[in-house]
């Protein structure tokens, strides 16, 4: 059986790693790995392949950045001839980035079966480009692997046949569990207590006045709790446009390699983020997470885990940080099937489906 994996952006890499391993352990399986090139900076891409021991991509479509239509259409037109030539039995797509929908659409039209890993998540906010990618990819997929039961319910409501849906657990947690022992102890010269911050959603960073409000609030928090802030390239551009000058308690870093970032999360007093994956990782690690978005497509991190949705309310953000500092953080547990074995379940189903 020939499986062709498509990845493109940073959050895809930790999802493909465990599945390539689980499939490689089975006989009669051939795998091809395609990188669309959506993320291309060394520290947004190469470093993840090395640290997570992902095989070198067989093909890199080198699409780079662009508007959504430019990026998606470039991926589609470069991916189509590759699928025709490679004739895979399955195309595997991950998460909700532009590479995911582009590859799913091409494959479905070529009548090559598509499996979607991390299916069924919904924020119910169509102003997020990822929500559109999720909805459409799930309509096109033949097999849908969900990380949590809310995903199954969303898919059933959208008319997806029950026998295509498989609740397998959270594959990103497979990677976390796999590398946690290797995650560097405490990175050097860290304060004893700190908030770890990441921000990259268009809704937070593209509008300069929203970004300024957030940076001002973080500067205020920085007066009592030092802030460590690895900055996504999109956000760095916008901070430069703002001409924002930051105080010593707000430490801006380059995007961090996976192991370093995991070490930073693990030791953080609190994480403040607008990422999807980090809401899940903090839940697994039991670290308080304050999410700077109005909604989450990962509700289990709120109902079961340590996540609190802050929206745009900077007073609420400051109150929640204070609660953590006062020793009263939201307590959480680990959702079912977030056990490091999701990729094994997926591999078993894929091979059995044929
Ligand atoms: C993409 C995903 C988002 C995911 C995020 C993780 C979509 C719609 N969005 O958003 O879901 O959470 O990845 O990072 O697919 N850039 C670089 N170097 C890079 C990559 C990007 O400098 O290696 C800059 C470019 O200026 C680019 C901008 O960042 O225009 C945004 O990159 P893009 O891939 O379009 O979206 P992300 O914001 O990274």
Describe the protein's architecture and organization.
The protein is α/β, with parallel strands linked by helices. It contains 15 helices and 13 strands. The chain starts with a strand and ends with a helix. The chain has helices at 10-24, 46-51, 68-86, 98-109, 129-140, 149-157, 171-179, 202-205, 208-222, 233-242, 258-267, 277-285, 300-303, 314-325, 342-353; strands at residues 2-7, 30-35, 59-60, 90-94, 114-117, 143-146, 165-167, 195-198, 227-230, 250-253, 270-273, 289-291, 307-309. The chain is globular and about 55 Å long. Bound molecules: uridine-diphosphate-N-acetylglucosamine. The site of uridine-diphosphate-N-acetylglucosamine (UD1) has 18 residues, from helix 1, helix 5 and helix 10.
Which tags fit this structure?
single chain; 354 residues; alpha/beta; 7-stranded parallel beta sheet; 6-stranded parallel beta sheet; globular; binds uridine-diphosphate-N-acetylglucosamine
């Amino acid at each position: 059986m020939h499986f062709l994996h498509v990845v493109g952006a940073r959050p895809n890499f930790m999802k493909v790693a465990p599945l390539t391993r689980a499939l490689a352990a089975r006989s009669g399986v051939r795998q091809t790995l395609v990188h669309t090139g959506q993320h291309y900076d060394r520290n947004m891409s190469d470093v993840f392949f090395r640290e997570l021991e992902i095989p070198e991509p067989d093909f890199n479509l080198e699409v780079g950045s662009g508007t959504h239509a430019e990026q998606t259409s470039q991926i589609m037109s470069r991916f189509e001839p590759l699928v025709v030539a490679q004739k895979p039995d399955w195309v595997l797509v991950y998460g909700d980035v532009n590479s995911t929908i582009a590859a799913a659409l091409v494959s479905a039209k070529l009548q090559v079966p598509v499996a979607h890993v991390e299916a069924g998540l919904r924020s119910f906010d169509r102003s997020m480009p990822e929500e559109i990618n999720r909805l459409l990819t799930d309509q096109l997929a033949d097999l849908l692997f969900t990380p949590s039961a809310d995903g199954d319910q969303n898919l059933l409501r959208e008319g997806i046949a029950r026998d295509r849906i498989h609740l397998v657990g959270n594959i990103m947690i497979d990677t976390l569990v796999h590398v946690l022992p290797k995650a560097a102890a405490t990175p050097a010269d860290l304060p004893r207590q700190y908030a770890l911050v990441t921000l990259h959603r268009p809704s937070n960073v593209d509008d300069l006045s929203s970004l300024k409000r957030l940076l001002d609030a973080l500067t205020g928090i920085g007066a009592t709790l030092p802030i460590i802030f690895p900055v996504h390239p999109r956000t760095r551009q916008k901070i430069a446009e703002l001409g924002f000058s930051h105080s010593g308690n707000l430490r801006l870093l380059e995007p961090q390699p996976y192991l370093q970032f995991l070490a930073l999360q693990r030791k953080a007093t609190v994480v403040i983020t607008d990422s999807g994956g980090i809401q899940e990782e903090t839940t697994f690690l039991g670290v308080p997470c304050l999410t700077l978005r109005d909604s989450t497509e990962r509700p289990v991190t709120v109902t079961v885990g340590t996540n609190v949705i802050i929206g745009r309310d900077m007073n609420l953000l400051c109150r929640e940080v204070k609660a953590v500092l006062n020793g009263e953080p939201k307590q959480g547990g680990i959702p079912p099937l977030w056990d490091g074995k999701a990729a094994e379940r997926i591999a078993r189903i894929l091979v059995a489906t044929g």
